[in-house]
Amino acid sequence: MKKTIAFVWILLILLAACGRPDDQSPSTEQGEGEETYTIRMAYLVPEEHSAHIQSIKFKEKLEEESDGRLIVELYPNGQLYGSDREAIEAVQLGNLEMTIPAVAPLASFNEKFLVFDLPFLFNDYEAAYSALDGDLGQELLDSLEQNDLKGLAFGENGFRHVSNNEKPIESPEDMDGLKLRTLENPLHTDTFKAFGANASPFAFGELYTALQQGTYDAMECPISLYYTNKFYEVQDYLTLTGHVYAAAIVLANNDFYNSLPTDLQELVTEASEEFRDEQRQLAQQQDVEFLEQLKAEGMQVNDLTAEQRDEFRQAAQSVYDKYESQIGKELIDRALAANE
């Protein structure tokens, strides 16, 4: 009996020894001692939007070229946070690794970014890119580190336009009294108050319902968001005001970015710059396609003449006067110089 028990114990010890290496050794795909990093990236735009389409390519590039050391989880359509401000706060606090918000809410964290919200600042896409991708844009990206954020690149939402349920907008007087939703940014709100609207900020994720229920008569956003969020179902008139060029921004938590090995930091930066270039191209293609779709869905679309646009520019001058001391005249002049 004793011999049998001893044999059983020896057999159990041998079996345990044989199993131990497989149970405790790291995955051969990761290699000995290599750490993996998960990037959760959340944003408001839906799956059809250019930013999400390019985020898929961003994810594929990081996972493939890092040999699996980077794992990217995408959360589009406001799944985790109902506003850009909430997503930025989450990244700032380290509760989320990355987000791609509109630049406008970022001004609440770093007021230098207010400069990009000035109405009619850029005449066209080329001027916007010159400012954003040049020294001015890089300085502002670098300044985000003091806010515990890493600014990686500027993407695109496009020029913003006004819609409403009352009538075509052809002059600032046509906006008088309209209950208009703005971005969570005081400069945007002041701009539409200067046009005569009853303007106030409101979370984007709840805007469709607010328009449907009549809480707001009017709104403003880029063409892509009108279509992908089906605002044509709750807005009748669209005026191509182009009052603000709306950049998006690829943001990461600064501590998380700095915790990555140097090669992975470089890979994230490279992928962000590729995102910027390709997403802008796709965004402009979508604007053309989506505008036709908005018309097909029944929205009445009108453009402003040069003279009508000048009326809006003159009405917005009070906004420049109010914010010049806060933003800085030198910063404003540098941004305007991109039009030359």
Number of domains: 1
Low-confidence stretches: 1-32
Q: Could you tell me the mean pLDDT?
A: 91
Strand proportion: 15-25%
Quickly give the CATH architecture.
Answer: 3-Layer(aba) Sandwich
At the first level of CATH, what is the class?
Alpha Beta
Percent helix, as a range, is: 40-55%
The coarse overall form would be globular
- How would you classify the helix and strand content by structural class? alpha/beta
CATH names the topology as: D-Maltodextrin-Binding Protein, domain 2
Termini separation comes to: 98 Å
What does this structure look like?
This protein has 340 residues and is an alpha/beta fold. The chain has one domain: D-Maltodextrin-Binding Protein, domain 2 (3-Layer(aba) Sandwich). The protein is 46% helix and 19% strand. Helix 6 links the parallel strand 5 and strand 6. Helix 2 packs antiparallel against helix 10. The longest helix has 35 residues.
Secondary-structure blueprint of this entry?
Layout lengths: L1 H23 L12 E6 L7 H16 L4 E6 L8 H10 L4 E2 L25 H8 L2 H9 L5 E16 L14 E4 L3 H9 L3 E4 L5 H6 L5 E5 H6 L8 E17 H6 L2 H35 L3 E4 L2 H10 L1 H11 L1 H8 L4
Parallel strand pairs: 1-2, 1-3, 5-6, 8-9
Antiparallel strand pairs: 3-8, 4-7, 4-8
Helix pairs in contact: 2-10
Distinctive features:
alpha/beta, 9 strands, disordered N terminus, 340 residues, single chain, two-stranded parallel ribbon, seven-stranded mixed sheet, 46% helix, 13 helices, D-Maltodextrin-Binding Protein, domain 2
Summarize this entry quickly.
It contains 13 helices and 9 strands. The protein has about 350 residues and is α/β, with parallel strands linked by helices. The protein has a single domain, classed as D-Maltodextrin-Binding Protein, domain 2.
